[in-house]
Amino acid sequence: PNAKIINARRHPLDSCFGSYKQLFASGQPFTYDLFELGEYYLEYQQLMEYWHEVIPNFILDVHYEKVVNDLETEVKRMLDFCDLSFEENCLRFYETERAVKTASSEQVRQPLYSSSVNLWRNYEDNLGDLIEILRPLLIELPKSEQPSVLQKVD
User: Which residues form a coiled coil (predicted)?
Assistant: First the structure.
């Protein structure tokens, strides 16, 4: 009942596009439809807003972009939230020998990199359905993080 939750966040378009281009195992067909992915993302957003209201001191939002830009600060923030001590090994997560069974199994074997930040911009012209369904979230972002099609509308 007193578990701490770390909510890993990412730019909505990067999050959805990252799932879209990943070949998942069966049982996740929604990841191959941009509109459906957007619907799932909106539901996730609503669910997290609910939990933030119900258990506000037990959820920490951690933004991928901030982790990539300042790993040590963000790791310390997460550990502090969980009442855990910082260890240098936390910054060298990629040196672990343990088995990893996730879609990012290759990525966890290397240091963080920033090439996936704003990757959606390279495909913006093909993300119209996703942009449209995520519009309510995207217009709340700073202009610099919005798709160009939304910046043209005032």
Answer: none
34 contact partners, CB below 8 Å, separation of at least 6: 16, 20, 127, 129, 130
DSSP 28-77: -GGGG-HHHHHHHHHHHHHHHHHHHHHSGGGEEEEEHHHHHH-HHHHHHH
pLDDT of 48 over the 90 cut = yes
- 128 against 112, higher pLDDT: 128
Amino acid at 57: N
Three-state DSSP class for residue 6: strand
Q: Which residue ranges make up each domain of the chain?
A: 5-90+127-144
pLDDT of residue 13: 97
Residues for the chain: how many in total?
Answer: 154
Burial class (CB in 10 A: 0-12, 13-18, 19+), 150: middle
Q: What is the pLDDT of residues 75-127, one digit of tens each?
A: 999 999 999 999 998 898 777 666 655 555 555 556 677 778 999 999 999 99
